[in-house]
Amino acid sequence: MRKKVVAGIDIGGMNTRIGLVDQSGEVLADSNIATDQYPTPEEFISAIHNSIDLLLKNPDMPLSELIGIGIGAPCANYHTGSIENAANLPWKHVPLASMLEVNFPDVPVKVTNDANAVAIAEMIYGDARNLNDFVVITLGTGLGSGIVSNGELIYGHDGFAGEVGHITAVPNGRQCNCGRCGCLETYVSARGIKRTVFELLANSTEDSLLRDSSFNELSSKDIHAAALKGDPIAVEAFRITGEILGRSLADVVAFTSPSAIFIFGGLAEAKDMILNPAKENMEKYLVGCFRGKVQIKPSALGNKDAGIVGGASLVWRNFI
Amino acid sequence: MRKKVVAGIDIGGMNTRIGLVDQSGEVLADSNIATDQYPTPEEFISAIHNSIDLLLKNPDMPLSELIGIGIGAPCANYHTGSIENAANLPWKHVPLASMLEVNFPDVPVKVTNDANAVAIAEMIYGDARNLNDFVVITLGTGLGSGIVSNGELIYGHDGFAGEVGHITAVPNGRQCNCGRCGCLETYVSARGIKRTVFELLANSTEDSLLRDSSFNELSSKDIHAAALKGDPIAVEAFRITGEILGRSLADVVAFTSPSAIFIFGGLAEAKDMILNPAKENMEKYLVGCFRGKVQIKPSALGNKDAGIVGGASLVWRNFI
Questions:
Q1: How high is the pLDDT of residue B39?
Q2: Taking 90 as the threshold, does the pLDDT of residue A79 lie above it?
Q3: Own/partner pairs for A217-226, CB < 8 Å, 24+ apart?
Q4: Which CATH number applies to B3-123+304-316?
Q5: Where are the domains of chain B?
Q6: pLDDT tens for each residue of B16-54
Q7: CB pairs < 8 Å spanning A and B
Q8: What pLDDT is recorded for position A304?
Q9: Residue A63: pLDDT above 80?
């Protein structure tokens, strides 16, 4: 009997990762294409098609049957199966599902945004397996979120629900790429913590390892490395980031009352440095009836494959 | 054949209203007891029992069969069927459902908070009949909310979801009864607009009809009446209230992306005076992908009976 596999696809601004995932969530084979090397959606879809075919023919793979394709992508709409108004991709609109269904007419193609895909993977393969009400916050360049209530992901009437990165954390605060000011992701994200470092470097006279990097050079990994060495600016930047995250999570709880909030992505690797101030401030700002009930913890999904597994879990969830 | 009816109960700090509601949402008979006249939950439950029996025996009623009891109450938990940690009731904890089930062993007893009950009534009898994703905001002494996503009310893991009145509207803002500062309901509610009037009376030198009332005397109805006469302080108070409401509704939309937000309760009677600035500011603060998609409108439920119908709709929804 052939082994059933789902192709999980994680579309990012630079790279698109494609993998074949079995029912247990294991990535059996994977490959990578450079998103920005394809001038048209047609060429991009054709490259995905070829990649999936090559992976299926990979001699190291068991004899397999493709039973579906699941995709996580920025600005992807679950209802329409399309990427809509993407800012960080080479193409603004791509009807992903309908284009791939031409190439793979016999299998379902499911599409959602990357944070929602991670939330579904957490529900099927991670620590949210027995939870009906939880939230996943993904900390990458920006801040994404997937909200699960009553055991179902909340897509909203238009497929775009879960934009927690764009709730107001600081009225009239930092300018956001979305055109608003003070959005949560301008403080809590890889780019947000960098902005906080530069604000601290400007406001204090404290010596810091980070005074030798330009804004464009500095990465959140550098800030994490400096914090591990005890650099006071880096440590304070993580504390502030956690504080603002915790304050906003108190609002998240007031909406959907999740039992747990999972933090996923690069910044979450700083663990207690960001999670402790987040927990402390969430508790401080929670309405009484929610206090002491909501866990904040790092996602149980490995960073490396979560995008691929997240995409695949859109399909696997219908079989599990 | 006997007509099937549900007892809908609306428990408030002062009054508890009890009515018999048919499947079409019509209140066939109703009565009223003074909540605060009952020193113990047992006496209160016994009074509700008597009221329902009397209504069923009312000679003006068609021959009826009671098929369920639905209750909307402050701090009521859908999962446990209890009132928990009530601040404005004579008793802190009341296991409503289990106590009433002793008196009425043959019918289901459903309990939820008052705003959730209104949301379900809006879904069954109001303007949300064809909507899967919407929000109801109730403006009374405080601000309540009921959030419906994927066609289901969001109760959260503990039954307390939908506390939009306690998201932060103004960081370090007005003191709230909940112990926090800057909660939305300290600005947007009958009490909130009164606080805004007093702030305006303090800050401006403008003449106003409202300068002759004490804080305790002044009601939101007085403010509405003054605004209708063009009183500049009253008009400005409604504008500010609508502005803060609209700004926070932009965050509500970023969470669950509803297609409509229904405003219910006393302040909503001021219609455009509060709804126009709310619409304008929600649009202004919305992330681009949500703009022009979300309606704000007054609830289609009449204020008078909505509490009773809301309670009853908790039961009727399982038959409709």
A1: 94
A2: yes
A3: A218/A194, A219/A190, A219/A194, A220/A190, A220/A193, A220/A194, A220/A266, A220/A267, A221/A266, A223/A193, A223/A194, A223/A197, A224/A267, A224/A269, A224/A270, A224/A273
A4: 3.30.420.40
A5: 3-123+304-316, 130-298
A6: 999 999 999 999 999 999 999 999 999 999 999 999 999
A7: 147
A8: 77
A9: yes
Q: What is the pLDDT of residues B144-181, one digit of tens each?
A: 999 999 999 999 999 999 999 999 999 999 999 889 99
Chain center to CA of B7: 18
CA A289 to chain centre: 29
The total of other beta-carbon atoms located within 10 Å of residue A106's CB is: 8
Contacts of B75 in chain A (CB under 8 A): 289
Topology agreement, domain B3-123+304-316 and domain B130-298? yes
Taking CA atoms, what residue in A is nearest to B146? A255
Count of positions (residues) in chain B: 320
Inter-chain touch A152–B152, beta carbons under 8 Å: yes
Residue B259 to chain A, least CA–CA distance (Å): 6
Confidence of residue A319 (pLDDT cuts 50, 70, 90): confident
Q: Quick one: average pLDDT of B270-278?
A: 96
Give the architecture-level CATH label for domain A3-121+304-316. Answer: 2-Layer Sandwich (3.30)
User: Which of B287, B293, B294 is the best residue to mutate to test the A interface, defined by the most A CB atoms within 10 Å of its own CB?
Assistant: B287
Burial class (CB in 10 A: 0-12, 13-18, 19+), B13: middle
Q: Are A233 and A241 in contact (CB under 8 A)?
A: no
The answer to whether domain A131-298 has CATH 3.40.50.300 is: no
CATH code for residues B130-298: 3.30.420.40
In sequence order, the β-bridge partners of residue A187 are: none
- Extract the tokens encoding B82: 């209890």
Tokens 């909307």 correspond to what residue? B72
Nearest chain A CA: its distance from B216 CA (Å): 26
C-alpha–C-alpha distance, residues A178 and A292, integer Å:
34
Cross-chain residue pair A147–B255, CB shorter than 8 Å = yes
**Residue from A150, A152, A177, A185 whose CB has the most chain B CBs within 10 Å, to mutate:** A150
Q: Does the pLDDT of residue B304 top 90, yes or no?
A: no
Q: Which of B168, B176, B291 to mutate to test the interface with A (most CBs of A within 10 A)?
A: B168
The ipTM, to two decimals, is 0.93
Position B1 scores a pLDDT of 80
Inter-chain CB proximity A255 and B252 less than 8 Å: yes
DSSP letters for A243-294: HHHHHHHHHHHHHH--SEEEEESGGGGGTHHHHHHHHHHHHHHS-GGGTTT-
* Interface contact A171-B171, CB threshold 8 A: yes
What residues contact residue B233 under an 8 Å CB cut-off, 6+ apart? Answer: B197, B200, B201, B204, B206, B208, B210, B226
Task: Check residue A257 and give its pLDDT.
Answer: 97
Cα–Cα dist A315/A292, whole Å: 35
Which pTM value belongs to this model? 0.94
Cα(B267)–Cα(B140) distance, rounded to whole angstroms? 7
Measured CA to CA, the distance from residue B302 to residue B197 in angstroms comes to: 27
